[in-house]
Amino acid sequence: MRWHISILLYGAAQALAERFDERLELTALPDGKVLGHWTFTTTLQNAEPGLNHAQHYTLFPLGLGQILNAHGASELHLALNAGQWDYKLWGSPPEPSVASGAELWTWIRARNTTQADERWVGFRNALAGVFCASLGSLDNQRTTTPALSFRPSVPLPAGKHELRHATLPAEHVCTENLTPFIKLLPCKASAGLATLLNPHALFSAPFHGLSVHYTQGVLRLAVQAVFTPPRQDWSLHTLLDRSVPSACTVASSSTLSIVAAGAQLDPEPSTDVNGALQYDLASASFPLEVTIRHPVDTVFSHRRLTPAVSLRRTMTGSAQYAGGLLVQLENARNDTVRVSYLETLPWFVTLYLHTIDIRVDEDPRQRLDLLERLSYVPPRAPAPTTLEPILRLPPMSRVTMRFQLERAFLLYTQHPPDAQRGWDLPPAVVTILPPSSPPITSGPGGQVVFALQGPPERVYAKTLLADLATPDFSMPYNVIIMSSTLVALLFGNVFNLMTRAFVIVNAQ
Amino acid sequence: MRIPSALWALSLALAVAAHDGPAASAARDFFAPYASNHTNNWAVLVSSSRYWFNYRHMANALGMRVTLYRTVKRLGIPDSNIILMLADDVACNARNGYPGAVYANAGRGLDLYGDNIEVDYRGYEVTVEAFIRLLTGRVPAGTPRSKRLLTDDRSNVFLYMTGHGGNDFLKFQDNEEISAYDLADAVETMWQKKRYNELFFMVDSCQASSLYTKFYSPNILATASSQVGENSWARERDQDIGVFVIDHYTHLVLEFLEQTNKTSHTTMNDLFSQYDPVRIKSNASVRSDLFPRPLDRTRLTDFFGGVAQAEVVDAALGMGSGGSTLSAPSSSEDASWTERPPVGRTVPEEDGEEGEVVQVKGFTMSSAIAGLVALAGLAGSTLWHP
């Protein structure tokens, strides 16, 4: 069979060089849980920017390639997560987008805003069809264009680009999202590391998420999940209820990496890279079944890096018109950290910018000097608020930012079917910026350009639930019934009085 | 009048062929007066209830899907021809003690969700408007292919609905209803637009038969789980899931369909004769006055089976740049499938017609509310929509 594969790859090499790599990293976490991070990377080598080539793909999924091409998306990031990522215990997530629900952001190539909006509609609907997610609902009520966060990870191809970012915090993730995700892989769920993606195990995990990233010819599909192993000694079978039946033959590299200090692995791993014990699936024996044993009850020593800044956000105040937003940013480092804080609130939660209040630790003074720069798009129904201050956090301090806000009273037709639940507010995102030098400059066209090495780190807050006053939904029915009854009684009596002749009838 | 010799030869050949064995009888069967003349099968499965305690409605729809879809050995309508609408997520609901799994019997025998499922309309997207637009084809521009009902005039459509219902209505998402009149008009629109050959309508809800009484388009066969004035009952609950997991009527239908496969000749009459008011605690009924064929000659597979036209070709098909269609088999035939004709920009999909949802007759609550809203002069953009 191998010579058939080499002919296939040769045929592919005539059109485009493609490369598929897969990797699974299982890391033991301090609280006994296991972090699983699958990465499936399909690289189009020698690809012209913007996918302007004839799409003769062998490994790259044609459906996704056609969608990206048709809607001019130069960069795509889609994440579907469920659960809460615990930054303190589990450290920085391997995939930074850990917002609960759906998050979609993309840089779209377009001549002007109108064309960008049209392409955005088509793009999110096409993705909704591919991933069986309600991404078509990411309309102008949920879409923002942040000016400072979500910069392109790699330089964009030539042409004007616009950013579109939208979240759907109440979105569920389930097997119907995983099915088309796996169908984008060359070996699907029959060979390689994708066979370990057992939906029953994955969706019981306290945190699980799928993400799709496309940048400049590289498509990266990632799954990250934090599993609870049944016992301290676990295996692929007890953790995921699966084992790898065979290797994916089209994968250039297929690695299973286990990071667990003081553990004994069976079978023996092929290599040891900085404490990560790795198996190369090309040379492993199948079915691959890995068992981890902790012979000695060791004190857990391995700890993942936590982000420099931790974020906590809450809504204060229970009244409809006297609410507040409280944001706490804690800087645990010994030097000043610059962060960009992105807050997008739906149109019915009105934030009052003039009530901004920034304090440090217990100091009662206002510290507006910590506010370097502010980008603010006020809400205009249906467009949401976009608030992006850049703050300078002093070393080893907690900066508290407060705003006053007001919740609107919605019309009864503006409420969702389960109105009593409330509205999910999109999570706030803190982007940790590099230190002051090099400074922020303005690129051509007035875009803000940061000189960065690699994508900056992002920290997400929890989604909040805004409780808006709900009307009595049965009232329209009640009013119609009541008034119809009254009108009928009134009309009936008046009609009878006016048209009937009342005569006295002899009783016999 | 001289009859051409070719015609003589043909009739002679047919006469000869008619005396052959099973092949001839199969050919005769094909041209039989009551055979269905459809070329493809579609199914629309709708579970219209929200919230965890309506688990059984999701299980109803998923059970139907599993019966339709499960392996080619069984009935075989592919997922691409099934539109599945689930108004709430029960498989990955926080209350589900078995994440990723939906069961339809106490004791949790068969997982209906499985590893390979595509839900086309989920959660808030399942609305009356979306459903009627799906049926009539007037979907908004940009609707992906998996969310369109791409039927034609030779499609046999199986429409299954389950949820809470009442006299002349079915409840969607616990806050709006579709009335039987709306449904009848939507199906008439389908008929006028030649979007179905025959329609089989099945509904499992309380007072379900009222939903089919308003149909007036031809070629509709309808069946329902209960009469006006009576409820349809849930069957059993699982102690660990904690809610009812299936309804009596759907369980009866699914159990009966277990016995059929792609080649069975089971008729609709066989299914309808299984209806037992004592067993399912409600009087299930059938409406066949709009259906042209007799029910004892109408096969279940006309609606529940996927029609697959398979043509066995001996030679290898090469799709080289020369444009030749058939070429002699060569040792590099595996390589030929990688060369495809160059694909430039994708052809933009045909936009669905976005127009008013036509209501030919009938006055409904939803239209009353729409009227009130229009009177209030509101811009529609801030109204809640999924």
Automatic annotation (TrEMBL), chain A:
- Pfam families attached here? Gpi16
Which domain of life does the protein's organism represent? Answer: Eukaryota
Which UniProt keywords are given for this protein, alphabetically ordered? Membrane, Signal, Transmembrane, Transmembrane helix
The signal peptide stretch is: 1-17
- Segments traversing the membrane: 475-495
Keyword match Zinc-finger: no
* Any one GO BP annotation for this protein: attachment of GPI anchor to protein
Naming one, the record's GO cellular component terms include: GPI-anchor transamidase complex
State the protein's name.
Gpi16 subunit, GPI transamidase component
What species is given as this protein's source?
Exidia glandulosa HHB12029
From TrEMBL, chain B:
Is Signal given among the entry's keywords? yes
Specify the species: Exidia glandulosa HHB12029
* Single biological process term from Gene Ontology: GPI anchor biosynthetic process
Positions annotated as active site in the UniProt record: H164, C206
Q: In which pathway does it act?
A: Glycolipid biosynthesis; glycosylphosphatidylinositol-anchor biosynthesis
Region annotation Disordered: where it falls in the sequence: 322-354
**Designated name of the protein:** GPI-anchor transamidase
Signal is among the record's keywords: yes
